[in-house]
Hints:
This protein is mainly α. The model has no long low-confidence stretch (mean pLDDT 82). 64% of the residues lie in helices and 12% in strands.
Amino acid sequence: MADELEPASAGNDQDDQGFWHSLEARQQKHLRILGFLVLISILVLLFILQNSDPVELNFIVFSFQTSLIWLIVLTYIAGALSGHLVTRLLRRRFFPPRERS
Length: 101
C-alpha cells in the first residue's frame, strides 16, 4: 500500500535534478537569450509609455508637434546614420582598400 503512494519518478535521479538541469547547454543558452529579450522588450515598452507626451519642435523656419518618443527615435536614427557615414568616410580616407594580387 505504501508503494502506491510514492510518485512514479521516485527512483529517477534525472527528474530530481529539475527542469533546468535536464536541458542541454544549447537549450539553456537559448532560454537565457529568450529571457533577456523579453526583459528588454518590457523595458522598451515602459520607455515608450513614459515618453508619449506631446512636444513641440521648433526648427529655423517651421515647427511641428509630435510625441517625445518619436523625437527620441528620430534623433537616435540620425545619430546612428551619421556615425556610420563618418566612420566609412574616415576608413576610406585613412585606410584605402589594398589591391589584390
